[in-house]
Amino acid sequence: MSSNEWKVTPAFISNDAVSTINAAIEKYRNWDRFGKGDKKGTVNYITPEKRVEATKCVKTGKTISCAMQLNEHGPQTGELKRNNPLHLFTLTGTDYTSPNAPKFPHGVAFTDDYLTMPLQAGTQWDGLGHTFSHGSGYGGTKCYEHVDAGGDRFTGIEVLQHDIVSRGVLLDIGRMYGKTTPEGVEGVLPDGWAIKEEHLLACMAKQKVTIGKGDIVLVRTGQMERYRKTGWGTYAGGDAPGMSFDSLDWIHRTQIAAIATDTWGFEVRPNEFPNSYQPCHQVCIPNMGLLVGEVWDLAALGADCAADGVYEFLLTASPLPVTGAVGAPLNPIAMK
User: Fold this and answer.
1) Is the pLDDT of residue 40 over 80?
2) Where exactly are the transmembrane stretches of this chain (predicted)?
């Protein structure tokens, strides 16, 4: 397969990007939907009743993680000032061979380690303080009040630590529209491929699933699996398949609680408007209040769903509750 077959030129939605983006901001803004001072955005759609309903998706008790392992071999290259995790040990088995090692009774010994990493270096949620729009954060707070040197003062990721358990649905757009790569990875969309509402609806019909209020949608493009085979290259920060600006009406209309992809930035790259940067982020996070997940490893879940034809599951996806964080790693678990 030639490289040209994987090159896609984005179709621009409008010649007037500014007016189009600003119109979407006004149309999809949820600042007043969940009450004054709301901190959780679309996660409010996940009610206790929704969680009870989601447990009905569990038929076999099979569990599948959707998280990348955290180590120095991850995809980060320093782009966006993000580096791979640094894992170091303060006590090892070797330390106990030294006469200066800590002494404990009865021959017991311990090891300890720590992790240094950007909170968005691996599988993560973008918190609602991650993106500003025209100087404001979610709810209309001024950007300098919303996040300062002390962290996110309004929508820190810790406010969601109890909430993100719901029905999950995988939409395997990659297997429906993608190709098998020269490395043998099945169902991969080319970089720059924009996922529009028509693609989402067609995939739902093919997989025989519905999506509605309070659901968490996982979108598999296959990009992570391709880069894992070829080397990470520009995976973290480069061109990618992803959500089209066209999909925002569907995302807002369905009242989903969250959406996550197996790409670094959720939306299609290059972006569909000339001279823009992440316009879907600008609409979704600070205005819609949508919880966005990135760098999710959907390989095992995608293969399992393709094998048994079951694309819904109970999903637990709580972020690490780092106080005031604007994003956080997690280990999402799908239970089928």
Assistant:
1) yes
2) none
